[in-house]
Write a structure and sequence with these properties.
Number of strands: 15
Number of helices: 17
Distance between the termini: 49 Å
Shape: globular
GO cellular component, one term: cytosol
Strand order of the largest sheet: 4-10-9-8-7-5-6
GO molecular function: pyridoxal phosphate binding; transaminase activity
Bound molecules: pyridoxal-5'-phosphate
Radius of gyration: 22 Å
Largest sheet: 7 strands, mixed
Family: Belongs to the class-III pyridoxal-phosphate-dependent aminotransferase family.
Protein name: Aspartate aminotransferase family protein
Structural class: alpha/beta
Helix content: 40-55%
Keywords: Aminotransferase, Pyridoxal phosphate, Transferase
């Protein structure tokens, strides 16, 4: 058996093509093109099997918030693996890392959250959300309250429940949607709003679509509304400040539970610990994953607010739900080390006061580029909307796949940036220096120029 350091890129690619079915991938076309083999990471950089250094503008998959190679996290995993690599929490048992992480999560999340239910990923967390909100209404004697409202173009994972909650037609088309999930439009100003009203007025209007939908369905049938504070995988769509407080008001008016999917926004990404704090709303439930361990090891879960916890704990009886890896001790130990690192190093405050504002300033400068129709940032997330005509903000014909062309240039020039249609997005690690932000912006500029040259 060949060890990992001895194979050439071609050998890796051949074995990959022969056996490995990648997520969200056209298997045949990838096998023909060959994958890029990432072999090492340090700080905000990756290296591939050809030795090329790459600035990771996406923190892996929105998760490596503290960067690669943080010794605290590595030590925590190693120590826990030696002490107790696994035990479950099913049969009146628990483990010290799971208990301590529950305590620490109660400390760093908003005050209504005193309880946590652990899962293995964001998708599993959202499956738990579906079960939990329906169980909540069952226990309260309102079993007809089943409908969960979400938004088009949202991403809530790719299990059957996660994919159904999400609003991505490509996912719905393969495997269908579970019953009683309904979608409304997303608050995307560039697409929907800019001709007729101000950004903030648009926020109120976009929130009113929820009110209208709840009224149409009947509030007595609606269990919950779920949304990402900033729609991430949909293209870093930052809503107006008016949007979320109005969503909160509408949910309160109808007694509907409010769920914040914090899988991307959680743990400092937006400049507060959680996105709901940045946007000023008070969810009843919160899904988390990714940044809880900075992606070093899988962990997800649901923070359960007092409104729901009081019903499930005091009156709910047995909750027939759980995963083998709920509260996995190694994952919890890594999460503890990760959160303590974020606290000790003041990572969230730095994103809020220094890094986020600097990224916003540098992104705003990208508006000068002829290809750029709009930029948006929130904390350490940014989007660049590519357009055919800057003055009228006319978009490109989608068949040109301009975003993919730009992404190709990024890959070729040592930057990982993602394309969502023609919206180029970044979510780099939260531990960057200002000089590294400049380096990233320089690479983005260069790749925009190369993309523009290709279009001529
Ligand atoms: N929710 C959001 C907002 C996400 O961005 C993601 C993944 O990108 C998920 C849920 C699903 O998380 P996972 O891939 O860990 O299942």
């Amino acid at each position: 058996m060949t060890t990992t350091t001895q194979r050439s890129t071609r050998e890796w690619q051949a074995a990959d093509a022969a056996h490995y079915l990648h997520p969200f991938t056209d298997f045949k076309s990838l096998a023909a093109k060959g994958t890029r083999v990432i072999t090492r990471g340090d700080n905000i950089y990756l290296w591939d099997s050809e030795g090329q250094k790459i600035l990771d503008g996406m923190s892996g998959l929105w998760c490596v918030n503290v960067g690669y190679g943080q010794q605290d996290l590595i030590d925590a995993a190693t120590t826990q693996l030696k002490t107790l690599p696994f035990y479950n929490s099913f049969f009146q048992t628990t483990t010290p890392p799971a208990i301590e992480l529950s305590e620490l999560l109660a400390e760093v999340t908003p005050p209504q959250f005193q309880h946590v239910f652990f899962a293995g990923s964001g998708s599993e967390g959202n499956d738990t959300i579906v079960r939990m909100v329906r169980r909540y209404w069952d226990v309260l004697g309102q079993p007809q309250r089943k409908v969960i409202i979400s938004r088009n173009n949202a991403y809530h994972g790719s299990t059957l429940a996660g994919g159904s909650l999400g609003g991505m037609s490509g996912i719905h088309a393969q495997g269908g949607v579970i019953p009683d999930i309904v979608h409304i439009e997303q608050p995307f100003f560039f697409e929907h709003g800019r001709q007729s009203r101000s950004f903030e007025d648009f926020g109120l209007e976009a929130a009113s679509w929820l009110d209208r939908k709840i009224t149409e369905i009947g509030a007595d049938k609606v269990a919950a509304f779920i949304g990402e504070p900033v729609q991430g995988a949909g293209g870093v769509i930052v809503p107006p400040a008016s949007y979320w407080p109005e969503i909160q008001r509408i949910c309160d008016k109808h007694g509907v539970l409010l769920v914040s999917d914090e899988v991307i926004c959680g743990f400092g990404r937006t400049g507060q610990w959680f996105g709901c704090e940045t946007f000023g709303f008070r969810p009843d439930l919160m899904t988390f994953a990714k940044g809880v361990t900075s992606g070093y090891i899988p962990l997800g879960g649901v923070m359960v607010g007092e409104r729901v916890a009081r019903v499930l704990v005091d009156q709910g009886g047995e909750f027939n739900h759980g995963y083998t890896y709920s509260g996995h001790p190694v994952a919890c130990a890594v999460a503890l080390a990760n959160i303590r690192f974020i606290q000790r190093e003041g990572v969230v405050e730095r994103v809020r006061n220094e890094l986020g504002p600097y990224l916003a300033k540098r992104f705003a400068e990208l508006n000068e580029h002829p290809l750029v129709g709009e930029t948006q940032t929130c904390g350490m997330m940014g989007a660049v909307q590519l357009v055919k005509d800057k003055a009228s903000r006319t978009v490109f014909d989608s068949s040109l796949e301009v975003g993919m062309v730009c992404r190709g240039h990024c890959f070729g020039n040592g930057l990982i940036m993602r394309a969502v249609g023609d919206r180029m997005i970044v979510a780099p690690p939260l531990v960057m220096t200002l000089a590294q932000v400049d380096e990233m912006i320089g690479l983005i500029h260069q790749c925009l120029d190369l993309t523009l040259a290709d279009l001529k």
